[in-house]
Amino acid sequence: MGHRRARGGLAPLGLDRTWSLPEDVLRFSAACGHLGAPGSLSVTPQWGMPRSLGPSGLLNATASDVVAFARAFLDGGRAPDGTVWLREQTVRDMLAPLVDVPDPHTLGPHWALGWIVHHQQDGRRVLGHDGSTLGQGAVLRVVPDRGVAIALMANGGGIADLARSLVRRLLPRVADVELPAALEPVAGADGGDRSAQVGRYERAAVTEVVAPRGDGGLTVTLTNTSALASVVAPDPVVIELHPVAPDLYVGRPPGAQAWASFVFYDGPDGRRFLHHGARAIARVED
To answer: Could you tell me which residues come within 8 angstroms of residue 257 by beta carbon, excluding any fewer than 6 positions away?
Structure first.
């Protein structure tokens, strides 16, 4: 049923290389994910994610189909033949910021309806959506006022570094957009009250333990507890965190070149949270 609904919804846009079932993808030249750090990659032992994760990671598409999908939003919801795929008001509603993100540095300061507001300044916005599965990743950026859409699809390690580099180079050239400088450690910065940061954090798929480091920084040890742990991260990962500002740190995951942001904050109910990698994780009592 989910497959038929997806195909039915996308058919008016002419997306004939977008599928959700492996038996459809096999008819084409399909990539297989590669896991590990750059220089030591290996083919993923499992091609796709479980069927239950369909909405978040089972659509397979070409970059040209992804750009065609974005074009429908740039064209006010109209399909290539001019027919109405989505009403213009629906498109406006979907692209409007709805949720403030505690960590505005990883993807962007706001979430819209399915879209991420990666950057906005002087009335201009850069929207998109990023995602990764088993050793593969996809990046989409859209600048509505310039009619620009950029899609990147890749497999293997270093996808996030590649995407950051390309997007930062392309947007000024094709859309006259300069993104803010990327975060880096700040010498002598005060990361805030470490007693309010250290501890054990848990969510459905991961456990993270934040501990103090002698130089004023922190370490975070990530243990994947999901059903895919043996595939994507069989061993715990330790990342050193360096302060940038109170409750704001950066760290480099293994094999990464760019710094990733880690934000500590209090939730509405007073619980302490750590936000990174576009996910919020709550601190728990031992």
So the answer is: 158, 161
Same domain for 245 and 136, yes or no, is: no
Residues 135 and 231 in one domain: no
| CATH assignment of the domain containing 222 | 2.40.128
Tokens encoding 151: 């899609």
pLDDT digits (tens, 9 = 90+) for 58-115: 888 999 999 999 999 999 999 999 999 999 999 999 999 999 999 999 999 999 999 9
Torsion of CA 141, 241, 183, 173, to 10 degrees: -40
Whether 170 and 232 map to the same domain: the answer is no
Structural domain of 215: 194-284
Residues in contact with 222: Cβ distance below 8 Å, sequence separation at least 6, in sequence order: 206, 207, 208, 233, 236, 237, 238, 239
Q: Residue 147 sits in a domain of what CATH number? A: 3.40.710.10
pTM of the full structure:
0.90
> 65 and 17 share a domain?
yes
67, 205: one domain:
no
Give 101-104 contacts, CB < 8 A, sequence gap 24+.
101/275, 101/278, 102/263, 102/265, 102/273, 102/275, 102/280, 103/261, 103/262, 103/263, 103/275, 103/276, 103/278
Q: Which of 144, 69, 102 is nearest to 280 (CA)?
A: 102
- Which residues are paired to 240 by β-bridges? 219
Tally the residues of the chain: 286
Place of tokens 């008819």: 27
